[in-house]
Amino acid sequence: MLKKNMRTIALVFTASLALAQTAAAREFAEIYTDCGLGALIAPRTPAVAAVTNVTFDLGTTAIISNISSPETCKGGKALTAAFINETYEPLEADLARGQGKYLDSLTTLAGVREDGKAAFVQGLRSDFAAAVVADGYAERSRFEKAEHLYNLVFRQAESRS
Length: 161
What we know:
- By secondary structure, the chain is mainly α.
- It has two domains: about 1-70, no CATH class; about 75-160, no CATH class.
- The protein is about 75% helix and about 0% strand.
- The chain is built from ten helices and no strands.
């Protein structure tokens, strides 16, 4: 029984390697740190992300996410989106104040370095203030508002990297 299980694991691993080689130009190690469940759970800790991916399902979700949606495999964007969606109202309040634990968490999830945090928050607050006073913003659904904030966060983050 153990021998059969080991053979199955070896086959899955071999298949994973084959699939990984066909996926874009991402290195195999990057797949295990930037994609899958590991990247969602530990976006800023590559070793933990890799161990999580291997432990949970031998990296299958990491490889599948790399193949099916490689643009989601870097920077923990899915986790950031979930955070914004779940905490939109307190984030909105923190943005209005310019500080707070939700805004601090958001900057961390978005990968903002400590030395760039003040400029990032200032830019995000400015962009968010402009969005809030724009025609039609008040009529948007909560989800649309959260999605808009997500887009503002990564536009700010990308402009600062």
